[in-house]
């Protein structure tokens, strides 16, 4: 995993774990890698991974079973999608809408683009 400088490493790790959940690599009730194992794999400090796990636990994505480890929460997918949609609507969509206005794209052009995206799913 390559880290970018514009965002905290622990948040980038959390994002990657969320993407693994959305992509099906980690499923609800799966045990996630131990803090130590993931820290070694990513070549980061264990405290950084622990911060990622605590962040995901606070967001309801992970459950911590004391003495056993962290697990993907039952409703993790819904929690992640809800968070991602909110972020998209607040941060990404306004820029996209501005670009649509500047390019004077019409609804038929946008519909065609959306249909193309759905073909590839």
UniProtKB/TrEMBL annotation:
<keyword id="KW-0805">Transcription regulation</keyword>
<dbReference type="InterPro" id="IPR036390">
    <property type="entry name" value="WH_DNA-bd_sf"/>
</dbReference>
<protein>
    <submittedName>
        <fullName>DNA-binding transcriptional regulator YhcF (GntR family)</fullName>
    </submittedName>
</protein>
<keyword id="KW-0804">Transcription</keyword>
<dbReference type="Pfam" id="PF00392">
    <property type="entry name" value="GntR"/>
</dbReference>
<dbReference type="InterPro" id="IPR036388">
    <property type="entry name" value="WH-like_DNA-bd_sf"/>
</dbReference>
<feature type="domain" description="HTH gntR-type">
    <location>
        <begin position="7"/>
        <end position="75"/>
    </location>
</feature>
<dbReference type="GO" id="GO:0003677">
    <property type="term" value="F:DNA binding"/>
</dbReference>
<dbReference type="GO" id="GO:0003700">
    <property type="term" value="F:DNA-binding transcription factor activity"/>
</dbReference>
<dbReference type="InterPro" id="IPR000524">
    <property type="entry name" value="Tscrpt_reg_HTH_GntR"/>
</dbReference>
<keyword id="KW-0238">DNA-binding</keyword>
């Amino acid at each position: 995993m390559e880290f970018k400088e514009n965002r905290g490493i622990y948040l980038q790790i959390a994002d990657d774990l969320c993407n693994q959940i959305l992509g099906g690599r980690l499923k609800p009730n799966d045990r996630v890698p131990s803090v130590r194992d993931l820290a070694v794999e990513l070549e980061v400090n264990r405290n950084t991974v622990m911060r990622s796990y605590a962040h995901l636990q606070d967001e309801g994505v992970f459950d911590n079973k004391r003495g056993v480890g962290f697990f993907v929460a039952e409703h993790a997918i819904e929690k992640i999608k809800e968070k991602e949609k909110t972020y998209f609507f607040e941060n990404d969509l306004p820029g996209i809408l501005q670009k649509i206005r500047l390019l004077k794209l019409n609804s038929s052009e946008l519909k065609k683009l959306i249909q193309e995206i759905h073909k590839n799913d």
